[in-house]
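I am writing to request your help with a piece of structural work I have in hand. I set the record out below, with my sincere thanks for your time.
___
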Amino acid sequence: MTILKIARMGHPILQTVAQEVEDPADPKIAAFVADMIETMHDANGTGLAAPQVHVPLRVVIYMVSPARDSAEGIGVPLTVLINPEIEPIGSETDVDWEGCLSLPGMMGEVERFTHIRYSAYDLKGNRIQREAKGFHARVVQHECDHLDGILYPYRIENMDRFGFSEELMKQAPSRLDETEDEQD
């Protein structure tokens, strides 16, 4: 396995729409996903999308620790989504802090749907469908945005709520403690 280079904001790969994976069960995709997993763990991330490692394919990996799973408190194990699709359930949204491995050391407040349904393929080519709430829903939406060339700062409505994590921590450390530890 290999640790891949993470593209940072400003790189053109992060501004393009990723291509669908033709065969989710292709062993080359499984090998690539293994490298993505190693890269995400090395960077202390919660999620990673293929364009973030310079590959324009519709592949996302993520996990949710039990501590961050406010909806159920059990967390979500490492999950691979190939060619994911998202559908909001209801219109309720929430504003919360996000970080990103492609914007190291920065964070901002982003509005996201609180409840979604998503479908995708796994590495065996099986179709999966799930619902997600809370932080789980936020992570899936954040990572899938990368597949459409969208970075979280594009979704920030109040740019006063965007900046370097270290500076923002000085202003409101209690609200930001958890976000600083895990980047999407």
User: Anything to note?
Assistant: The CA atoms of residues 99 and 183 lie 5 Å apart.
